[in-house]
Amino acid sequence: MPSLLNDDGAFLSFICSLTAIEALGGFLCPREGNGQRFKEFVCRFFREPYAAQAELLWKLRNAAIHGFSPGPYKLTHHQSRLHMTIDGGAPVLNAEDLYADLVLAARKYFTEVETNAALQVALEERAKQPDTGVLVVAPPVGKP
Description:
Layout: H1 10-28, H2 34-45, H3 54-67, E1 74-76, E2 86-87, E3 90-94, H4 95-115, H5 117-128
Parallel strand pairs: 1-3
Antiparallel strand pairs: 2-3
């Protein structure tokens, strides 16, 4: 995703980050709905002040995915000093900071999965769902 952190791809980087949060939330809470598990992942694994904005981030996810819109946020890139500030009444997200915080949250989650049996069960449950699975990048084997 770092290759999207430029003028041409910044908005897509937000979509990728938001989709990754949703996917990780699915492994955290496989029996919950999309919104609940997205917000649970944010609250549990992201650093502050994200938890306080979990509902707004879910609104951003919906606006970005369904309407290609920034929703309740002002989105920017290469402006780390503005990340998580307020501008004109709207919170600001900087693409590089959101991505970096997503990486940290994912690492925190997977570190916890290593020793937490309940998280292991939830991850396995989600991975076994017929519409989910686990992404594996490998060369094709050429067999039907």
